[in-house]
Design goal:
613 residues, alpha+beta, four-stranded antiparallel β-sheet, disordered N terminus
Length: 613
């Protein structure tokens, strides 16, 4: 192929960038499409999809790397296009390989990336261009990446490239792609139209409950609206202040694969602007819960790991404490709501309000803090572990929360013995089988307790690997005292949770209470959506008590609900154990799982609309 022919290689078809720009310019008021524009009809690539990941790791660098130093970027771009079409590698593989390509001349490679993004006519060539600009891009590349991000299949790579150049634009492209609700669509349109007042109205009206906004969505909203700048306005609308608190609180949720607040580049500035104006919020239960949630996370959650100036995090905690302890705010918790959900939330705030403001005269090597999040945003109860004042699990693992107090403390798993034993401290948000867990080996060595031999999955390619975990040595007496204190601290638990713990202890001591009914204990806890209800789960296998049940035989899962009736937990647990001792629980519990045919053959109703409760 001659040089002239190579320069014409991209010309016969409209570039993907020009195609996307044409569609976008036809939108009224610069609107961004939901779900992206469809790609144009493209000619099939030779052998597309035939090249596996292993082959792609070799073939793509061989094809691309020599062209990264070619000064004639038009010629180099034509060669990239031709070679990738001949290879037929999958675009997702090309994207991963491009992220690791060795670059000897950044200026030339950047120029090639620009040529490919602006003039490329194949998805593979544009993918390489976006990948190069993700590493080498500059502010002038933002408009081109934004437009390409409006095409289906390019949103994720374009957002990744934009995130290091202009996180606000990256967030807008991300939100436009997934804006499925009317309120979020209005906000995206206001952002696209650069109408600040409409943006603020849209932000105030945005539902931000746990089912309305995921942690990642909360972060992208904060980035797109430039939350810290919004909060610096004077005066600032109290509704915007409250929404900012909800966004930050959602970002700290552990119901995700990572804590989004740690990925939010302006988190420190947003915290500072919000807490500085916290006293401007009207004292309501909802606002109290927002500020308390932020304080808990600043104290012992992922937010403690942000890049804080010395002493600044402590200053913000002092400010929040002074606000929440004023008479007007303290009066919020003196009210006893009649609504069960509001009452539970009020009781949570009463129990938790002192936790983030505890002063310690001396730094401690180890601190164990069971922590309950705002029940309006149902989440796990986790055992936060602070090593030298830093929360261990979000820093060393970051794929899920620390395990529950029942798992780590009630079981005695954190106690140190002469015999080393491995302990699972945290499990991935999905499951351990999917994304792993965090383990440590605990043992006693003379006057010390040692945490060593850590085990955790490797970081995904798109994330920075967490820091190496060293061997931790604790003074044995101090360690034992801290574990004993944490095991005996029940200040975090509400009555239904305490009832569950006491029932668990009773069944651990008397397993025959269930075995006599051919039942095997599953778990005891509280209902996720109604935390004032204690739940006991067991599996029924005919013949289990006599040792005659078959692994592949019939089985059913039952759940027994015990709503809180105001009786003290000790009495409720004793009554539950007595009932198990004298009456078959299959008569008063409900089938919750197993196989329909087993339920029918054994004479139990299968769960349905009329018998779920």
């Amino acid at each position: 192929m001659s040089a002239q022919e190579e320069r014409r290689a991209l010309a016969p078809r409209q570039s993907l960038y020009d195609y996307a720009l044409q569609l976008h310019r036809a939108e009224p008021d610069g609107r961004l499409p939901q779900g992206g524009y469809p790609l144009p009809d493209l000619p099939p690539r030779q052998g597309e999809g035939n090249l596996g990941w292993t082959e792609t790791q070799v073939a793509v660098p061989e094809a691309i790397v020599p062209l990264l130093t070619e000064p004639d970027t038009t010629r180099a771009a034509a060669q990239v296009h031709r070679r990738l079409c001949a290879l037929g590698a999958r675009d997702r593989y090309v994207r991963r390989v491009t992220a690791e390509l060795p670059v000897a001349d950044e200026t030339t490679a950047r120029a090639l990336g620009r040529r490919l993004t602006r003039a490329g006519t194949s998805t593979a060539a544009v993918t390489v261009g976006i990948g190069l600009l993700a590493r080498l891009g500059e502010p002038e590349d933002v408009p081109y990446l934004k437009v390409l991000g409006l095409l289906r299949g390019f949103t994720a790579p374009a957002v990744e490239a934009l995130s290091t150049l202009d996180c606000s634009t990256a967030a807008l492209v991300w939100l436009a792609d997934c804006a499925s609700t009317r309120e979020l669509r209005h906000l995206v349109d206001a952002l696209a139209g650069r109408d600040d007042e409409a943006v603020h109205r849209g932000l105030s009206a945005l539902p931000l409950g746990p089912r309305a906004a995921s942690p990642s969505q909360a972060r992208r909203i904060a980035e797109a609206v430039r939350l810290a700048d919004v909060l610096r306005r004077d005066p600032v609308d109290p509704d915007l202040l409250a929404q900012a608190g909800r966004l930050l609180s959602r970002m700290t949720s552990v119901r995700d694969y990572r804590s989004e607040v740690l990925a939010y580049p302006h988190a420190v500035a947003a915290y500072d602007a919000l807490v500085t104006r916290a006293a401007q919020l009207p004292p309501t239960l909802d606002h109290y819960a927002i500020l308390l949630s932020l304080a808990l996370d600043l104290h012992s959650g992922p937010s403690a790991l942000l890049d804080w100036p010395p002493g600044h995090r402590e200053e913000l905690l002092n400010t929040l404490e002074s606000v929440l302890h004023t008479p007007a705010w303290a009066a919020v918790l003196a009210v006893e709501p009649t609504d069960p959900a509001l009452r539970h939330r009020t009781h949570w705030a009463r129990r938790a309000t002192g936790q983030p403001f505890t002063r310690r005269t001396e730094p401690t090597r180890l601190r164990i803090e069971p922590t309950v999040r705002d029940p309006a945003d149902p989440d796990v109860v986790e055992t936060r572990i602070l090593l030298d004042g830093r929360p261990l699990v979000p820093e060393a693992f970051g794929r899920g929360s620390a395990n529950s107090p029942e798992h780590l403390l009630d079981s005695g798993r954190l106690r140190a013995t002469d015999e080393p034993h491995e302990v699972q401290l945290a499990e991935a948000y999905c499951t351990e089988g999917c994304c792993g867990a965090l383990y440590v080996t605990i043992c006693r060595e003379g006057n010390h307790v040692v945490w060593r031999d850590w085990s955790r999955p490797p970081a995904p390619p798109s994330q920075q690997p967490p820091p190496d975990l060293p061997e931790y040595r604790f003074d044995a007496a101090a360690y034992d005292a801290e574990i004993t204190r944490a095991e005996n601290d029940r200040s975090w638990a509400w009555p239904a949770r305490t009832t569950a713990r006491l029932i668990t202890a009773g069944l651990r001591a008397r397993p025959e209470l269930l075995i006599q009914w051919d039942a095997q204990l599953g778990w005891v806890g509280t209902d996720y959506t109604n935390p004032d209800t204690t739940q006991l789960s067991f599996v029924f296998r005919p013949g289990f008590a006599a040792g005659h049940s078959a692994e592949d035989g019939p089985w059913l899962q039952f759940i027994w609900n015990l709503p809180d009736d105001g009786t003290p937990p000790q009495e409720r647990a004793e009554a539950a154990l007595q009932r198990l001792a004298t009456a078959d629980p299959k008569r008063y519990a409900k089938v919750a799982g197993g196989r329909r045919e087993d339920a029918e053959s054994l004479g139990y109703p299968w769960p349905g609309k009329d018998n779920r409760k």
